[in-house]
């Protein structure tokens, strides 16, 4: 059975293959599976300086980030240890100030 990746825009699992493109019925996002396949041979995540990040790296926030859906603000300079890289819009799975959050790689730098 063909495995269809989750929607890169909203992470929905209800995506389907529509001839050429993958389609997400939940946010109407469409994308080319060939592009996804091309990035499949290794997750490459770069920090704000263009340095390649790897699982287990420590990172530092380069700007204040307001957490979606809350009043919590992560301060510039906050550190996250032992990050985990994931596919998707927010590539970094980590803990900042004891909170498990997802970050965009463009807002961090390697510690
Ligand atoms: Zn979607």
TrEMBL record:
Pfam families (alphabetical): YjdM, Zn_Ribbon_YjdM
KW Zinc-finger (keyword) present: no
Protein name: Phosphonoacetate hydrolase
Biological source species: Gilliamella bombicola
Keyword Hydrolase carried by entry: yes
PANTHER family per UniProt: PROTEIN YJDM, PROTEIN YJDM-RELATED
High-level lineage: Bacteria, Pseudomonadati, Pseudomonadota, Gammaproteobacteria, Orbales
Gene Ontology MF annotations: hydrolase activity
Keywords from the UniProt entry: Hydrolase
Superkingdom as given in the UniProt entry: Bacteria
Domain Protein YjdM C-terminal: residue ranges: 45-111
Homology family: Belongs to the YjdM family.
Domain Protein YjdM N-terminal residue range list: 4-32
